[in-house]
Design goal:
alpha/beta; D-Maltodextrin-Binding Protein, domain 2; 2 domains; ten-stranded mixed beta sheet; 11 helices; about 40% helix; TAXI family TRAP transporter solute-binding subunit; TRAP_TAXI; signal
Length: about 325
C-alpha cells in the first residue's frame, strides 16, 4: 500500500511540475530568446553598466541570453532601439528629448516613437581631465586651439560639451574616439584635454590615475551657473571619494540617464525585466556603484519618454505614481 501511495504522490508531483512548466512557457509566449543592450564605447560607464545589467537579466530569467553591445552612445542607442535593431539601450535625457521631437542628428525630422523608458540609471556629470604636467587646472587655463577629446561622435559628451565650452569662450580643436583610445592619446601627448560625460567613476579616468598624474578640472561657480542657464543640465558635485586625485568635491553639471526599450516588446517580458532590476539594487551596485541611484523613486526625472506599459505596471503595483499621459 505504501508503494502505491508513493507512486501516486510521485505521479501527482510530476503532473504538477509539468503543469507549472507548461504555464511558465505559456506566460513567455512571444518573448525573445535573446536580447542586446546598446551601451557606448569601452572605457566608459555605459559599457560597464549596460553589459553587467544584460548579464543580470539573463541570469535571473534563466533561459534567455543577453549581452551589451559597443555603440556610439545615447544618440545612436535611441536610433537603434527605435528601428528595432536593439531591444534595449541606455540614453541620456538631453538626446532623448531631441529624439522624441524629431531633432536627433542621426535622423533629422523623424520623431522616434518606438522608444520607451524603463528605469532611472544615474546622473551623468560633465567633467574635464588633463595631465598634471599640462598646467591646466581650470577651464580658463585651456589654451587657445587646444586638442580636446569629446568621446564618440554623436555621444552625449560630443553633442553637449563642445557647446558648453563655446559658451564659456574656449576655442578648441575637436577630436572624437572611444574613451580608452582618447585616454591613451592624452597620456601620449596627442590631446590636451578630455571632456567626459559619463557616470562616475569613469573607468578610463581611474585607469589614467594609476598610470600617470592627472587633474580633474572643475567648473567655477560662475561657469556652472552659465551652463545651467543655457542647457538642460543640473548642478552636480563630484565627491572627493570618486578619484584618488580629488582632495575635495569638484563642481560640475549633470544630466540624468534612463534605460530604454522598444515599445513593442511584450508587456510581461518588460515587466519582469523591470522587476528584476528594481528589486535587486544590491546586485546592480555590484555592477557599478553609480547604480545606487537606479531606484524607483527616481522615475520622476523622466518627463520626456513614455514608459513601457510593462514597466509602468510594476511601478504602479508598488505604489509609484506615473501620469497616465506618460505611459505608452
Amino acid at each position: 500500500m505504501r508503494n502505491v501511495t508513493n507512486l501516486a504522490l510521485t505521479g501527482s508531483l510530476a503532473a504538477a511540475m509539468l503543469i507549472a512548466t507548461t504555464t511558465a512557457h505559456a506566460d513567455r509566449e512571444g518573448w525573445p530568446s535573446n536580447f542586446t543592450v546598446g551601451t557606448a564605447s569601452q572605457g566608459g560607464t555605459f559599457y560597464v553598466y549596460g553589459s553587467g545589467w544584460a548579464n543580470l537579466i539573463a541570469d535571473e530569467l534563466g533561459d534567455i541570453s543577453g549581452a551589451g553591445e559597443v555603440t556610439g552612445g545615447p544618440t545612436q542607442n535611441l536610433a537603434l532601439v527605435h528601428s528595432g535593431e536593439l531591444a534595449f539601450g541606455l540614453t541620456t535625457m538631453g538626446p532623448a528629448t531631441d529624439a522624441v521631437n524629431g531633432e536627433s542628428p542621426l535622423a533629422p525630422g523623424v520623431p522616434m516613437d518606438n522608444v520607451c523608458a524603463l528605469f532611472p540609471m544615474y546622473e551623468t556629470p560633465f567633467s574635464i581631465t588633463a595631465l598634471s604636467n599640462s598646467g591646466i587646472t581650470s577651464i580658463s587655463d585651456i589654451p587657445d586651439g587646444a586638442r580636446i577629446g569629446f568621446g564618440p561622435a554623436a555621444s552625449t559628451s560630443d553633442v553637449y560639451f563642445p557647446a558648453f565650452l563655446e559658451e564659456l569662450g574656449v576655442n578648441f580643436d575637436r577630436r572624437n574616439g572611444g574613451w580608452n583610445d582618447l585616454a591613451g592619446q592624452l597620456q601620449d601627448g596627442l590631446l590636451d584635454v578630455i571632456a567626459f560625460a559619463a557616470g562616475i567613476p569613469i573607468p578610463a579616468v581611474s585607469q589614467l590615475e594609476v598610470q600617470t598624474n592627472v587633474n580633474i578640472v572643475e567648473f567655477t561657480e560662475e561657469e556652472q551657473a552659465t551652463i545651467i542657464e543655457n542647457f538642460p543640465v543640473s548642478e552636480f558635485w563630484i565627491p572627493a571619494s570618486t578619484y584618488t586625485t580629488l582632495e575635495e568635491d569638484a563642481r560640475a553639471v549633470s544630466m540624468w540617464n534612463f534605460a530604454i526599450s522598444r515599445c513593442d516588446l511584450p508587456e510581461d517580458f518588460v515587466y519582469e525585466v523591470t522587476r528584476i532590476t528594481m528589486e535587486n539594487n544590491d546586485k546592480m551596485r555590484n555592477i557599478h556603484r553609480s547604480a545606487e541611484t537606479s531606484i524607483p523613486e527616481n522615475i520622476v526625472h523622466n518627463t520626456v519618454l513614455p514608459f513601457h506599459p510593462g514597466a509602468a505596471r510594476w511601478y504602479q503595483e508598488n505604489g509609484y505614481e506615473i501620469d497616465e499621459a506618460l505611459i505608452k
